[in-house]
Amino acid sequence: MPVVFMFLLGAIILQRLVELIVANANRKWAYERGGREYGESHYKWFIIVHTLFFISLAIESSIYFNEWKPSHFLLLFSIFTALQLFRVWCILSLGKYWNTRVIVIPGHEIVAKGPYRFFKHPNYWVVFMEFIIISLLFQAYATAIIFPVLHLLLLRVRIPIEEKALNQFSAADQF
């Protein structure tokens, strides 16, 4: 496998690990302010799916990866880069409120800036697209199909929990 391939895979995994460190620090910050977590039982499935994604990506690409065609690589890498910039915009827009868990802090306003001004849950869209683009970038075509579907199944559980928690929070704040 090309060195660029291993470097890119390592960089993506490192990025995810750093995000988990940031999420953990933000979780502690939220708890110190009375934050409450919702839907704790489904969180492990996100960890499992994301871990299996990287395992699947590594295995499938080690079997099927062929040379990158410069035009395909440039297109997919450009989309990947745009997704990373969008991901950073999502995280910076939420600031300390950004987390990989559903945590609501009583008395705090719901963030409605950055991409959150335009639509709900933009980071979930980024993850969905990343599962596709990263898989295609590494020529892991089965992974490109399986993991976006698993992500959507998880979101069928996650988004209603998050919406209910935020709606309860908003309703409680109005009184």
From TrEMBL:
Pfam families: ICMT. It is a multi-pass membrane protein. The chain crosses the membrane at residues 47-66, 73-94, 124-154. It is found in: Membrane. Keywords: Membrane, Transmembrane, Transmembrane helix. Gene3D superfamilies: 1.20.120.1630. InterPro entries: ICMT_MeTrfase, Metal_cation-efflux_comp. This is 15-methylpalmitoyl-4-hydroxy-2-pyrone 4-O-methyltransferase. The gene is ypbQ.
